[in-house]
Structures are given as structure tokens and as C-alpha cells.
Amino acid sequence: MAAAAAAAVGGQPSPQSEPPQPDLGRDKAATAAHLKEALSRPDNRAGAEELQALLERVLSAERPLARAEGGGEEAAAAAAGGGSGGASGGGPGAAEEEALEWCKCLLAGGGGYEEFCAAVRAYDPAALCGLVWTANFVAYRCRTCGISPCMSLCAECFHQGDHTGHDFNMFRSQAGGACDCGDSNVMRESGFCKRHQIKSSSNIPCVPKDLLMMSEFVLPRFIFCLIQYLREGYNEPAVDVPSEKDLHKVLQLLGPQISFLEDLTKMGGAMRSVLTQVLTNQQNYKDLSSGLGENACAKKSHEKYLIALKGSGLAFPEDKLTCGMQDQAAGTSSVAVSGFAGATGTSEQVDSSDEEDQDGSQGVGKRKRVKLSSSVKDQSIMDVLKHKSFLEELLFWTIKYEFPQKMVTFLLNMLPDQDYKIAFTKTFVQHYAFIMKTLKKSHESDTMSNRIVHISVQLFSNEELARQVTEECQLLDIMVTVLLYMMESCLIKSELQDEENSLHVVVNCGEALLKNNTYWPLVSDFINILSHQSVAKKFLEDHGLLVTWMNFVSFFQGMNLNKRELNEHVEFESQTYYAAFAAELEACAQPMWGLLSHCKIRETQEYTRNVVRYCLEALQDWFDAINFVDEPAPNQVTFHLPLHRYYAMFLSKAVKCQELDLDSILPDQEMLMKLMIHPLQIQASLSEIHSNMWVRNGLQIKGQAMTYVQSHFCNSMIDPDIYLLQVCASRLDPDYFISSVFERFKVVDLLTMASQHQNTILDSEHERSMLEGALTFLVILLSLRLHLGMTDDEILRAEMVAQLCMNDRTHSSLLDLIPENPNPKSGIIPGSYSFESVLSAVADFKAPVFEPGGSMQQGMYTPKAEVWDREFDPVMVILRTVYRRDVQSAMDRYTAFLKQSGKFPGNPWPPYKKRTPLHPSYKGLMRLLHCKTLHIVLFTLLYKILMDHQNLSEHVLCMVLYLIELGLENSPEEEPDEEEPVGGQERCHDSWFPGSNLVSNMRHFINYVRVRVPETAPEVKREPPASTSSDSFASTQNSGTAQVFSLVAERRKKFQEIINRNSGEANQVVRPKTSNKWSAPGSTPQLTTAILEIKESILSLLIKLHHKLSGKQNSYYPPWLDDLEILIQPEIPKYSHGDGMTAVERILLKAALQSRLNKRIIEEICKKVTPPVPPKKASSAEKKTLDKEERRQKARERQQKLLAEFASRQKSFMETAMDVDSPETDIAMEIVTPEQQVSEAVYDCVICGQSGPSSEERPTGLVVLLQASSVLGQCRNSTEPKKLPTTEEEQIYPWDTCAAVHDVRLSLLQRFFKDSSCLQAVSIGWEGGVYVQTCGHTLHIDCHKSYMESLRNDQVLQGFSVEKGEFTCPLCRQFANSVLPCYPGNNVENSLWQCHSNKSLQELIKEVEELQEQLGIFPVSISSETNLSKEMESVMKDIKSTTQRKYTDYSKTPGSPDNDFLFMYSVARTNLELELIHRGGNLCSGGASTAGKRSCLNQLFHVLAMHMRLYSIDSAYNPWKKLTRLMQDINSQLCNEEQPEVPVLYRDVSSLLLIQILTMPQPLHKEHFTCIVKVLFTLLYTQALAALSVKCSEEERLAWKDLGTLKKNTCNAEKSWEVLLSLVINELSKGKLYLEGETEELGMVNPIAWSPDNIERYLQQFCLPFLRITSLLQHHLFGGDLPSCQEEEEFTVLASCLGLLPSFSQTAHPFTSAACLDWSVPAFDIIPQWCFEVTSFSERHAEQVKVLLIQESKWDLPHLLQLPENYNTIFQYYHRKTCSVCTKVPKDPAVCLVCGTFVCLKGLCCKQQSYCECVLHSQNCGAGTGIFLLINASVIIIIRGHRFCLWGSVYLDAHGEEDRDLRRGKPLYICKERYKVLEQQWVSHTFDHINKRWGPHYNGL
Hints:
Layout: H1 22-25, H2 28-40, H3 45-60, H4 73-81, H5 94-108, H6 113-121, E1 132-133, E2 138-142, E3 153-154, H7 155-160, E4 168-172, E5 177-178, H8 194-197, H9 213-233, H10 244-265, H11 269-280, H12 282-289, H13 296-311, H14 317-329, H15 347-363, E6 369-370, H16 380-383, H17 390-400, H18 405-413, H19 418-430, H20 432-441, H21 445-460, H22 463-473, H23 475-488, E7 491-493, E8 505-507, H24 512-515, H25 520-530, H26 533-541, H27 543-554, E9 562-563, H28 576-596, H29 605-625, E10 636-637, H30 642-656, H31 669-690, H32 699-709, H33 718-731, H34 734-744, H35 764-783, H36 792-806, H37 811-817, H38 833-842, E11 843-846, E12 860-863, H39 865-870, H40 874-880, H41 884-901, E13 912-913, H42 932-946, H43 954-969, H44 998-1001, E14 1006-1014, E15 1041-1042, H45 1047-1062, H46 1066-1069, H47 1073-1079, E16 1087-1096, H48 1098-1110, H49 1125-1128, E17 1135-1136, H50 1140-1154, H51 1156-1169, H52 1176-1218, E18 1243-1244, E19 1251-1252, E20 1260-1269, H53 1298-1312, H54 1315-1318, E21 1329-1340, H55 1341-1353, E22 1367-1368, E23 1375-1376, E24 1378-1381, H56 1401-1413, ...
């Protein structure tokens, strides 16, 4: 590559101006200072030349490939010639760094660079923030403050501004953006933050000239150097693909330079204006880059630039001219350059576009692309680029390199400079076509799109700027042309209608361009600029642009055509429909909404006329291109008719807002007929799709039908379509329209009076749903008023009611489901005031609740009662449902409401609702209801329903009645023939109805009807009545035989008339051939004509229907006969509930009201029907219905009976299995009378269903879940809650947790005492203890094994791992992982009968000792291996393996038996302590165990005891002896040991209790248990006194000592704490215990004065934990309830319960805890012995003595960390926090809610031995259970062992909703109830049972 820099600014470099070589070596700062000084002279030519030369030298060194020896020009050229093989010598970054250093020095002019930066910053007029961010940055948007919808703020500006109460949200930037704070074009000034509020121009001083002088000289060279770099790095790719690696490399090398420029922009306004000057100055550019000098490498660089320009399909204008000349010579016009590729002069491009064709065509199947010869206004838009400044060429390269992030950021950082902004915007527009071409070729089009939008949204959101560019640079022309060109590259021939001869082209939705939304950036810019009124007006005034735009829209007209598969299922379901819907919405509809938003007032009528005119022209062209006359091609549908929709929406706007006369913008009748065909085709196809007629096309066709009506699309798709049909219907002949509808829906043949018919084009199974579809469509068409006169607020209300009626909705789903105007600037903002006010008017808020199953509800809105009562509109619901089941759901909810409110008991029909009045322009729509065709259809259907013909449903009847009622509501003025005689039928010449008014037609009797029926039909056999002897209708006038009715013929006739009227061209008339193809009856049986006797009118049919519906004769009685008032003041409610009968009554009343004649006829009919002998005909029909009814009734009764039987069976099963209704009869307590005490416990096996005792051979087991738990370890000794840290200052230190305290204690003991004795002095399991819980169900262990086997073979994916022994309880499906064998033998109660014997304490002590000696004897001897003992061993193994090794191994010698011993009794301790916590930390509530049946402690004890007995305690060390005997030779014993045993006073009494009990033979006698408790209580009490004595101050100690000595000789001395306290103090003071200054250390802990009351309270608190554990244990081993009590008396109640208080009587003197003492050895003997151990220890280690004596007894309940009220507090602190392990900001940060540790979720950076950080932490912190809050998602995730689940969120927004992944970004607040539930589940270990969706995490979290 070339090396030397180009010519100096002053012309060619002259040799003498080059500074001598050593200059470079000279100190940079000095040089810089010297140059600055030289340049500040008035005559600075010499300085300038010197600087240029220096720069040339310095910056030339920057060439990466020119680092050959001397750096001289020859060497450089040689290196460049030698190819680009990478840098030669010197690290790649060395020279660039050197150059950057030079630049910094020169800019600073010899001073320090940092000082220079600071100096420049001082002159920054910081009016704008302009902070630029990239994707994934968290920013804010405030709709209250924004003028442009794209407005965004950085977090800092947002929090510094005041947005309280505003409608704002936080969002993650998708494409990147920039902060708009301070820009009043984009946001209101009230929202500016504190820093950008000040209007700054006034107080900023002027920039001194010399400060930036050097910059003005240095920067042009620097930027040029950068451009040369870019030129050289770019190699025009051989194929169409730039080799991305090379580009990346170049960009990486350039990183520091661009960053340097970026830093300059951040210095503020002063520096930005210098940069702007440099970038936009054309002279500089010309001088430096023209490449004219003799400098070789400058030339080379320029050549590369030209090549690159050419390769872009862009030429310099000069080339352009010549190629234009050749074109003209060849006789083509220079404008219509064929091919998309631009001018033929650039031959490369043409080739490449051919290549593109070949690979494109394979992907798209066999369809060849079509190329248009475009006639664009000005070809130069696409093909000419000329660069005049650095900025332009920089942008050119930025695009060439596909928008590198750093360049984009640099270009955007400059935007706060106003001059730059304008220059840059113009440059951007100038390169627009080039951007599009690069984007199309790009492989990373997603990234590139984001970067483009990142830039363009900053430029085009500003209305002033957009207007200026539109005026000066033809912005609109450029955009439309570029869009057109872009789409032209993927056109194919349309196959709609006339496949062979169609001239229409459409976009191919399978192309990458559409599939990947590549067009998105350009369309989004277009939408953005159309949102500015000034720009949109220019667009709407420019006829040429409108023509081009309609041309563009027509590319989408008819795209993605679906053809119905009739034979086999399509083999490949194409998913192109996503692309098609997205394209129509984004490229057509959104610009349309943008334009519509500017056509709101009368003055804009002209614009609408323009759009409508060109739209109609485009439509006419389209009809011509697809050869359309009057019949759509069968079996094909496209959902995409953007031209129709443009036309419809502009019509609607014109009438609604601009007061235009509708008829003035409507075309002629023929055009209207054509216009209605395709939208109608879509409606019929929707019905076909829902009738499963398109199943062979796969699921995607259903997807299209759903998308078409879905909330984001409906108001750009189905709403305009229906509106257009309403307009057509209001202007066309109603008979024509109605017959078209039934023909489109293919149900014409069904509409016959005959009971059988032939339908040639529809299978009979589809007939019913198609008929329902047709009628429903008519109802919608006639009742919908969305565009026919409703105001915006009414529309919003109707939409909201419809959505709420289907289901209760959350606020966000409502926002999402209400179709808003898709263009954000239209003014209807979701969340605006009208939305909230309408919502509060129609709905009630249901706060989020919890269901016991643990499923969490969100806050929901539910319709108010009066909404159900008055506003429920089934028509709107049907229109808006995506899933058909939602309609049913709405009806069910409506029915439930009516039942509940007592308004209607039965099954109601959809209610009839009065509509808002029609806008006068659309009055013609109601003529549909008053046309004979419709009346014939209604009559026929009523008759068929009455006669029970097949394929009719209640729904059909419902719609028929709805239409009749609509007709009566909207009847024309009073009918003229009021006084016509009854015999007036004679005057009727038309065979069906006399007129077109429904009111009069209702009473018209039709006597006979001719029908065409198959020969097989029953009608054929009958003799016709005499009167119809001749076939000529003339003679049968009197009989009024209606002619056979053919819709198709009528319609054809009408159409011919219209066409003949419109055009005399004969050839058009002769085209009905298309329809004959499929309406001709092919192989069907012959049709013959039959004449039916009918003799009914619509009124008489209705009355008979009423009888039929009610199932009674004469059920209808005209109400006005009793009460004439009804007719005078009819109070017909607006809204009426009820079923079919109610509807019929309502219709008859309305008919009677509207004409006296009708009234009279109704009365007559009713009289006629009255005779008691019913006519034969009626009876047969009735009989049929009656039989039907009876049969139904019987079937119903049978069903009820079966159900009842089933229910009772189920109940009895549940009772036996789960003991539902009988909580008292516990499994274990089936004994009733004391005699049967010996009976064994009976267990039911839930697998085989047998019940029986558990035996050694076939043991039964409890289904249990074993889990390691560290909940206990989280208890803390302060009640002050721990908060989650949200600032750097707050940190959590885990020193005060229970686990930490116990750990410290154990390791202290292990330092000084014998290991084996230490391991019996404490309990472990505070962390990683094993908790055992059961669901209470039992099973045989062998059954369980076979069950596990079957689970193993079951291939269904389970949420648990069978290999690890996990399963779900076969009965209640609770999660479990082991089975705990039940110990055979008697029931728990067997020891109750051993009531207190009279043995003395001494005897009992002796017995206990003997029992401990005979450890070998055990009911189940270990030697004989039974099944039971095997199972016990295996469950013990399970228990051990449940927790990690580190939580079981505490001894100094690994694997010592002492360890197992400690672990086993600690398991018991853990379970007891946890049960205590579940009871709230105390036993005040009493009662049976929380889950009497669910406790497995009894069984667990047996298993533990059996294993503990394997470890015999050496009798010498048995603590029992120490407690109950005086040792003779204390001294000698202590001296022998190298490490003494742990003194008794240091031992944990609860642990001693468990050791004692578990090492005794089971089952234990209660008296022995009580004995052990009494003995241990004395020790505990002594410990309490010792701890107390340490806490007292010296003076207090002396006082108590003396007081006690006085009382020593009273009678009850051993039971008085004063005496004992003084004894303890006395004994302990013999050692060094109280000596060294304890007052500082421990005395300060409790500065309270120790009054006797305080002491008593202290002693009780110290003893309580032991009493609680012991009482629980007693309760589990021996049964019996726990008494409940107040908190104050807990001590006394528990003590008496345990038998420590022999006769608890309320005596006069106050109770003291010492009363419970029962000394086995006199206290005055044994206490000194215990104290001696401590004092002898204090001789050696005085400092530890006291610490060990004070045991912390009061632990608070475990809690999770307290969370802040507002989620933002957590988010702002943690989402940018760096991880302490890897010091990066994690992609998915999470925080542990138990201990507050910050972790990386899924972060590979913190992985250790294949475990990711969250999983590791869950093991370390929670022994396998972790609760993490995911910062970026606000969701809580639970890790339990090898599984995890998403728990949900505890932060909800103002509407009680979660915001997972913070998608909505609304403020979130803590939901205390949810957090309580989470904590509850954590403490009670029920995550596994309550949360259902678990999955394996494979250690990857």
C-alpha cells in the first residue's frame, strides 16, 4: 500500500521545507510549542510549511505496511508494490501510537494534553446532551414530554429531570440511539434535566483563538490520513461478497484513530465546531484528495477511491454523460434505463445483478423474477455520487464498510453541532440510494439495519430539519424512488385471476428482502418523515409522487396468493405469510396512517381527492392487468389488497373529518361492483377456512385468517375491507349485493324450500357453517359502525368492552389487544387519558390474589355489571376474536352474569343491541334489509327451521331473527298501503313479495312455491293441488305460486344491465363462461320441478316458531290484548336479554307497532292456531320435536345418575386413600379402646392397595423427600431485617448468622479439646442439614421398587431424574426421592399406659445407665440381615448422600466413626429445629403436629437409632456418668489426657439429649425419657447461671455472691437461683475466669442493670430452646398433644408438660424457673465438679473461656433479604455493576435473595469445573437451593439441586402485573404478599411441591 501523505495545503512540497531528520527525535512538546509559536505570528507561512512537513512525516509512519527501513518514499513504494501481506517489522500498533502521541502533542501546542482537554471543555455550551448509545443500552422514553414519538433520554438525564406522574417507560435500545435532553424540537422543555435547562449562550465566554489554532491545522491531515487508510483497506471483492475478515482487520487497526476523534467530539461544542469546519470545508478536501500531484501514493490512493465508486454502481457525472449519449444513439430514451442496475456504463454492476438472479431463482421455486423498465423521474437519484468534502467521503466509506459501530458513534457524537447536523443530513440523503444497495447485498443486514436507523432516526425526527432537506435535496423523491427500486428487485408475475395472461407483478414474499425485513430501515425513515405535517403536505400535493407511490403499493396488491388444495395435503407449508403481513403493515399501512393523520380538517380536502384519484387509477390498472371482469377465480384468495384499503381509509376520513360529499369521490357502479369482489372473497374465505375447507393447505392458512383479524392488523386489514363493502352495499342494487354474498359463500343451493337439495360446489358437512358464516357476515356488515358514524371514544369503548367480555384482561394485554392507530403520531396513544378513563368506566380492577395451589394471579380488569347488562355486543366480539372459542367464552360469561344477577335463568341468546345512528352518507346501507332477495332468504330459512330440515342450527335462527329485527328497527317511513284490504294479495303480480318493505312483506302470505328438487325427494310424490293444473303462471295468479327462486340468475341479469348501461362494448357481455365451469350440475341426479303448499307468511312462521321453541301449543299470546298501553307507549328496552322466545316476542311486538295491519294479522293467526284439535301437519312436526325432547330428557337423567354414581365412588376412594373427611382418624391412631392397645399399626400401600402392618420381611415405607437445607443457618440473632444492598456503602457480612456462629464454636472447641469429644458437644446441620418431609402416604418397599422400574422404562420426559431415585408419589403426585421404612411393632401410644410409676429419680438414673450398657440387645438383630434392616441401611445412605461431603465431615481424622455419629443425631436435631421454625419459632400454638399425618420424625428416629447403636460410647467417656455421679479422681483424670475432653458446661444440652435418647434401646419408656430430661435440665440451668455470671459486672457479681451465701441454708436452697448463682460465681472465680479486663469486652454487651426480674427472664430465655425441642421430641415419640398457651407462660407450660414441674399449682409466691430443678446429686457437690473442668481449662487458655461459656440462645426466624419498594433502585445499581470474580459487567446479572451475593447467570466467565456461578452459589449458600432475582428480567428463579424453575416476579406495576424481561419498562413496586409466599416456600421447603414447571439446568445457570 502507498505510504507518503499527499500534497501540503500550500501546494507541492518543496524540498527545503522538509525539516531536518533529528527534528523528529527532538522532544515532542518542545517541537509543538515551537510550531505553535511560529504559527501565531502574523506571517505564518514558514510555520505552516514546517508543520505540514512534520505531519507528512509523522502521519506517513502511520501506514501499517510502510515500516520498512528508512521510511523514505522509495522504500514505501517498494513495500506497497510488494503486496499487502501484513506489517513488516515493528508491532502493528507501535507507529500508530507514536502518530497519535504526536497529534495529541501538537493539538495541545506543547502543553499537557489533559490540561488542553480541560481547557476546551470549559468553553462547552452544553445545551444538548447528545449522549450516543448502542444496542442494549437502557434508556427512557417519556410520552408526556416527547414531541416526537422517537424521543429518548439517557438514564442520567431522566433521573435528573422531573417526570413524576408522567407516562414514561424504561426500554432496552434495539438499534442504539442518542439522548434528546435539551433539544426542544423533539421534547418539551419542561422535561429537560437540571444540566440542560439553562439556556447557555449567555454565560459561556468566547473561545480564545490560539487555543484551537493547532487543531485547525492538524485535523484536516489527520482525517485525510484516516480516509486514505480506508481507501487502501478496501478491496473491491471478486464476487459480490466483501470478505468481511479483511474489513474487520482494517477497522481493528483503525480503532485508536476513530476513538481519538470520538474523544475530541466529547470535549464539547468548541472542538465540535472546529471538526465541523474541517469536515465540511470543500477546499481542504480538494487540495488533499484530488490525487493530482506527482506524489505516487496519493495518486494510487485516489485511483482506489475511483474504483470503489465505480464498483458501487455509482459513476461520476462525467462518465454518466457519455453513457447517456451512447444510449440515445442506440435509440432508447435516456430515462428508461433498463434493469435495476442503473446505467449500462458500469458494466460490472449489470453482470452482478444477473448473477444474483441465478442464485435467487433456485430459492424461490420455479418462479422467475420479473424486471421492470422503470421510468423514474430522475435516474440520477440512483446512480450519481460526487464527493466534495471529507464528511461526504467519510460517510461513503462508513457505508462501504457496512456501518462500523465506532464510525457511527463518531458521526452521531457530532450532531449537537447545528451546522454539522444540516451538512450531515444532506450528505446522508445524498447517499441514500447507495445505502439501500449496500444493505441489500449485506450479509449482516440485521446489524446494518440497526445502525442505519440509529443514524436516521436522529436526523429525521426533527421536523425543521426534515422540511429543509425535503425542500433542498428532494428527500421525498429520493425515498420513494429508492423504495421502489428496492422492491423492483424481487417482483414475480401475479397468478391471481388470469394466470396465463396476467400483466400484474407482485413482490415475492419468499425473497430474503421480505423474509428478513431488510426493507425495514428505509420504510421506517419514510414513516418517520411523513409524520411531519410540512413534509406530508408536500407529498400529498405532488401528483407525480402519488402516482409513483401507488405504483409501489400495487406491488403488494395480491401478493402471497393462496390456492385451495383439493386433493392431497400440501407437502411443504410455506411460512411466507409472516413476511407478507409484515410488509403490508409496515410498507403500506403505516405510511397510509401517517398521511391520514394530516387529513383531519376541511382545508385538507384537496389531498384526499388526490389520493383517491390516483388510488382509483391504480385499481383500474390492476383490474385490467389481471384481466378481471365480474367473476373471481374460484378457490384462491389473497389477504393483501392495500390499494382497496388506501381507498377505503381515505373515503372514511373524507366523510368523517373533511365533510366531503361521498358521492363526489365514488366511481361508477361498474367499478364499485369490481371493488367489492375481492374483499368479499376474503370474508367468504375466512368462513371457509373456519369450516375446515382449507385443511389441506396446512396450518399456515389458519394462521393467515387469524393474523388478518388480529389486533395489530385488524384496523389496517379487516376494518377497511368491511367498510369498503359497506360503502359498496350502500350504493349498489341491494338484490345484487345480497345475491352476490350468498353466491360467494356457496350456499345458494341450500336456500330452497325443498327438504332435499343438491349443492354442486359445497360438501354437505360444510353447508351449515358456511350458511352461518354468510348470515354472520351480513349481521356484521349491517351492525358495524366503526367507520359509519362512531366517535373515536365510542370506538375505543366498544373495542374495550369486546375484549373484556371475552376474558378478564391485564392492563398490558388490553393495551395490546385494543387496535390502536398503528402510526404512533396519530394522537391516540395507548395509555393516554381517554384509555384510562374509558377503562375505569367499563371495568373493575381485581387485585392480584393467590390461590392455594401457589399459582399467582396478575391484577385483572373485569367488566362492570352494567356493561354486561347494557353494552355487551356479540357482533363486535365475533369481529375481534382470533380464536373461535373466545366467542363461546364471552357467551358463557354473559350467561353466568345473567344467572347470578337473576335477570335470566336459562340459556340466553346473544343479546340484540341498538346501534349508533348511521352517518347520512351511508343511509343506503339499510336498503339491504328491505330488498326482496333478503326477504325470500329469511322466509325460506324460517320455513326450513320450522320444518326441521337438515344443516340448520340455532345460530342460523339467531342470525335470521337478528336481521329481521334490524330491518324493523331501520324501516323506511310509514308504509303507504295501510288501508289496503286483506284480499289485496290478488294484486300481487310478482310471485314472491309485493314490495320491498319488510314491514309489509312480513304479513304477505305465500301459498305455493315451485321448487326444483332431486327426483328422490319426498315432495315429488305428492299430487299438486288442483289450482296449479297449468304451468303457465298467468293462470295461477290467484294461488300466488312463487316462482323457483334463483339468486344467480337475478344477479347475472343485474350485472348485464349495468354493464350495458356503462359501456356499449358487446364483447364484455359475453363472458359468463367462467362461472359455468363450476356451477353446472355434472353427474348429479336429475332435478324436477315440484310445487309445495306453504300457506305461511313471515309472521305466521314466527308465531309457530315460538310454539316450537317453547314446546307448548299456543304459547304465544299477543301482549297488547291484555294491556293496550304497550302499543301506546312501547317501552322496548335498548338492550334485551333472553332466548329465542324472547326474541320472537320482541320482533312481533315491533311488527305490530309499525303497522296496524300486522297487528291484526298477528291476532288472527293466534286465533287460528287456537283450536284444541291441532291440524295433522303441525302434529307430525310437533310430535317429532316432542319425541326429541323426551329422548333428550331421558338421556339427561341417565347421565346425571351415572355422574352421581361416579362421584360417590370417587369420594370413597379418596377417603380410603387420603383420609379426606376424617383428619382425626390418623393412620397411626386407629385404636379406639385401651384394651386393643397391642394392635399393630396398619398401613395402606398406595400402589397395590392392600393394607397391613409393616413386617421385617415385607416392610412398608413412607414416601419422603430428603433435601439438604441451609435455612437454619440463615437465622440471625437480631430482629433488625437485613436489606438487599443497593449502594456501594451497604454491604452484607455473614458473621451474625446461626451457621457462622456454630462453625466458629466448633472450630474453637477443636483447637483445645479432644476431637471425639468435640464432635459430641455440638450439633451440625445448620448448613446443609438433611430435612425429611413426607406427604403421608405409605407403600410396600417392594412395590416401590417395581414402580421405579416402570418409571425408568417410561420414555415420557419427566421433570425429575429417575436415576437419582426421584419419583412422584403415586397417589398425590408430590415430589419425593426416597422411602423411609416404618418400624414394625406397636403403635406410638404403646407407652402411654405406662403412666408415672413411683420409682425415684435415682432408680431411673440407674436404669438408664444399664440400658445404655446393653447396647447390643436390639429387637432387630443386626446379624440377621432382614429386608427391613437392609432398607434402613439404604435409606441411611440416601440421607448421607443428600448433602455434600463438606457438610458431613468435621472431624480432624477423615472418615472417623465419630463423624457419622455426629451427623446422625444432627439429622434429628435439624428436623426438630425446622419443625419449630415452621411453627413460628415457639410452641405457643400447641395442638397436634402441624401436619399430624405428615410428620415422619417417629420413623426417622427409629432409622437413626438403629444406626447410632452401632457406635457404642466407651463407658468411661459416657457423659451420663459425668452428669449423674461425682467423680473421685478428677485431678488425675485431667492430667492423663494430652487433650482434655470438652467440659460439660461447654456442651450443647440439646445435642446431649439426642445422643442419650438415640443410644437407648427403642421403644423408650416415657419415665426414662423424663429422667434424662430432668438430669439435662440441671446442667442447662447451670450453664445459664455461668453465662449470666460472665455477663454481670464485677460489683454485681460480688453482690450476688454475698446474697446467695446468706440464703444458702434455707430449706429449698437447691431450688433457688440466687443460691446457685452465688455457688457458680464462687466456683468459677477460683480460676482466671473473671480476671482480665472483661468489663470492656462483655460487660458492655448488656449495660442493663440485672434486677432479679431481668435475671429470671434471662434464665428462662436461655432454657426455652431446649424445652421446645424436648417437648416436640416427646410429642413425636409418645404422642399426646402439645398444650397451647400465651407467650409469657410458655416456659411453665412446657416445663409441666415435660414433667419438670411435679405439681404445678398456682401458689402465692411468684414462679421461678429454678423450681423445675431436680438434682440427682446434690447441687453443692456436682456444680463445683462441673466448674472445675472450666477453671482448669482457664489456667491454660484464659482468653477463650468466656466466649465458650456464653452460648447464643435467641435466634430470630430465618428471613430473605428485605427488598426496596421500587424496582428501579435495584435495577440501576445492579445492571451496571461489575462481577467481583471476572470484573466484567455480566450479560445476565442475578442476585441471591438469601445472602445478597451478586452472580453472573449463565456466565461462562465465572464457570468453575463445569459449574456456572449460580449453580455453584446455590450449593455453597443453600446446600443446593438457590433463590435468585434476575436483574434484567425482574423474575425470580429457583435452583433446587439439579433442577430449576422460574418462580415469577415479586415486583408488579401499578396495575398488578409482572413485567418479565422488563419489556414494558413501567415502574414496578414490591408485592409484599408475593414475597411472603416466596419466603414461606423457602422456609417450609415446599418449592418442589408447589411449583410445577421444573427443568434440568445441566449446571449451566
